[in-house]
Amino acid sequence: MKPEPTEALHLLFDEQGQRVGDMPPVKCGLCGALARARTLASGMLHGDAGWDCPCGARGVRVELVDLDEVYPDVLEAWGLKPADPALAPPEPVGESGLLFTSHVDGHGLRTQLFEEARRQGAQVAASQVRVRITTPRQSFPDWTWDVLWARPFSQRN
Question: CA 130 to CA 143: how far, in whole Å?
Answer without folding.
Answer: 6
